[in-house]
Amino acid sequence: MTDKELISLFEKLIRQSKESEWVEYKLNYHSAEEIGERLSALSNGACLERQPYGYLIFGVRNDNQTIEGTTFKPKNFKYKKEDLEHWLAQRLNPRIDFRIYEFEYEGKYIAMFEIPAAHNQPVDFMHNAYIRVASITRKLNEFPEKERKIWKNEPEKPFEKEIALQNISAADVIKLLDTQSYFDLMQQHYPTNRDGVLEKLVSEKLVIEAGAKYSITNLGALLFAKNLNDFTGLSRKAVRVIVYKGKNKLETIKDITETKGYALGFEGLVNYINDQLPQNEEISKALRQSMKMFPEKGVRELVANALIHQDFREKGSPVIEIYSDRIEFSNPGLPMITPIRFIDDYQSRNETLANLMRRLGICEEKGSGIDKVISSCEAYQLPAPDFQTQEKHTKVIMYAHQALNQMDKQDKIRACYQHCCLKYVSNEKMTNQTLRERFKINERNAAIASRIINDTKDANLIKDEDPNNKSFKYSKYIPFWA
User: Fold this and answer.
1) At what angle do helices 446-458 and 409-425 cross, to 10 degrees?
2) pLDDT band at 171 (very low <50, low <70, confident <90, very high)
């Protein structure tokens, strides 16, 4: 590779908005074992993403792609009295021909590993194969479906495009799918004949035409099935809603499963959930009003997120669990970005599904849903929602109201960070005053807000917009990734 080609490749890689399954950034050397694991993970990730190579780049920050340069020079690096390059190559199986490039870019020293994609079998390091899930390195055996695809070298065909039911008649399509709802949600007139209906469904890839017969795709069935149980394999993706009596699972009040397609049953599902939520009664003059304890807009967005961002290849279905003091929204699969970046970043493994649900008016525009969840929680004076990853699923917890003195330190830090993010993506900046408004802290108690800000800075979640500003009164804060 010529110097010009090398610089061009480097510039192309750092233009990516974040790390991926086949590109990782680091500043400096940590350990030889860590590099070996990354070589395995990036090779396997490149295979799944249909990329010829994966790349491990030293000298670039992984949070914002700032080029800072590195002190690590892998070509001459010795590990256990052996050349690092040789030590790594001996422990990779199969022996892939990775290459190391060292060069200067705008006066900064860069080291880059170019790793060939795995072919027909996973690449392992010291008898363990690895994979990257978004920006996290995990053992490949935790993801058997991905491992199978590497062994077969299969392309990653989106789940939505696979066939749910094939070789059926036009009449069967109309019988199994609620076609009227599609046109109603799209705010379009229903065609005057069946051919016009089927033509539109085919154009949306909800249905595939094959001669005189048709096949319904997973996308079509998931969104518009009159009953998901009519489609083998999709019944397990029906949404489940469980209502518990108290703060734990000891006593179940209700347990229902919504068997309609997601688009078809969404409004009814959200209305049902909101009807189950605890309420506060307010008496205003002679009028008694029931006020929801949770914001309906936030609930709606989190239900939509659980549907859209699930990993359909993982076992299980989206589950909404309602307790007396919280709601938990769970979906199968780990997120493609770290939860701490949900508010400012967006990536969906089911983009076809997400795009159509946006057009149907079911969810918000790309990347804006979590903003609205956090904003609605602030408006209701609720604790900050908690975004979690657990073994093989993602969970979001929305808590009922708590006074500030009832929140623990982590609750306050999480709320401060999310408030700072919300201000930043709104082209504003967090200050002591805006945080006091968020928590309803009296101005004379500004020191309480200052303490929360300092705790959040100590947690490396926010930073001063201007580190040189010595005026505490006029300090502004931005997220760590800004």
Assistant:
1) 90
2) very high
Cα–Cα nearest to 477, from 455, 462, 467: 462
Would you say 293 and 278 are in contact if contact means Cβ atoms under 8 Å apart?
yes
Q: How far apart are CA 482 and CA 157, in angstroms?
A: 34
Write a three-state SS string for 230-264.
HCCCCHHHCEEEEEECCCCCCCEEEEEEECCCHHH
In 119-261, the DSSP E strands lie at 124-125, 128-133, 136-139, 163-168, 207-210, 213-217, 239-244, 252-258
- Phi, psi at 11, each rounded to 5°: -65, -35
Instruction: Express each pLDDT in 360-394 by its tens digit.
Output: 988 776 656 888 999 999 999 999 999 998 878 99
Smallest Cα–Cα separation from 313: which of 404, 230, 370, 234? 234
More confident residue, 58 or 20: 58
The crossing angle, in degrees rounded to 10, of helices 432-439 and 446-458 is 110
Share of the chain above pLDDT 90, in %: 67
Q: Are strands 53-58 and 23-26 parallel, antiparallel or unpaired?
A: parallel
Give dist(CA 73, CA 290) in Å, integer: 66
Confidence of residue 100 (pLDDT cuts 50, 70, 90): very high
The residue written with tokens 């900046």 in the block is 429
Q: Which of 305, 319, 339, 322 is nearest to 398 (CA)?
A: 322
Taking the CA atoms of the chain, what radius of gyration do you get in angstroms? 26
Going 468 to 470 to 473 to 474, the CA torsion angle's sign is negative
Closest CA to 151 of 170, 129, 173: 129
- What whole-number distance in Å separates Cα of residue 386 and Cα of residue 357? 25
Residue from 386, 472, 370, 387 nearest 426 by CA? 370
Cα-Cα-Cα-Cα dihedral sign, residues 157, 342, 314, 202: negative
Q: Pick the closest to residue 55 from 13, 23, 27 (CA basis).
A: 23
What integer pLDDT is reported at residue 313 of this predicted model? Answer: 86
For 212, 267, 295, 474, the CA distances from 272, given in Å and listed in that order, are 40, 8, 14, 46
If phi > 0 it is left, if psi is from -120 to 50 it is alpha, else beta; for residue 367 that is: left
Task: Round to whole Å and give the CA distance between 190 and 183.
Answer: 6
How far apart are the C-alpha atoms of 217 and 118, rounded to whole Å? 30
Can you name the residues that pair with 335 across neighbouring β-strands? none
